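peptidylprolyl isomerase
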Amino acid sequence: MVDVFNPKDDVVVAVKEAPEGCTRRTVAGDYIRYHYNGTFQDGTPFDSSYQRNSTYNTYVGMGYVIRGMDKALQGLCTGEKRRVVIPPHLAYGEGGVGNLIPGSAVLVFDIHVIDFHNPKDPVEIRITHKPRECNTASGADDLIRYRYNCSLMDGTLLYSS
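Structure:
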């Protein structure tokens, strides 16, 4: 349980759903896209990316979100679902945010990671088909005709030629 008045409280994270075979987890500097429902401890909603039909996109651990969320976004897998409880001193503190978030509010977020990547990640190229006989290789300034598929890390197809 999070005590509204204890500045020693940390973020409480409960993993609700974790995909099998997670090969990479989020680290500071990753660019992440996730959906969330934000509520107060009593269940009253205050914000939802689902209602806007748009993911929340940010960099992990770079200070672009409240400190508690920055902590909660560490170590996630694509497709993972977590419930995150953030104490006031790691959220909006005693001041709150206008009429939306009262002062000293404990925030609860249910998050679902859609995908993430690090801008420094190398481009991955996979050869999926190579003719048995290939007598001519392409070179500089050659015009090449090709087919491609572009997909998210979870396999969702974005574009195809």
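The chain has a mean pLDDT of 91.
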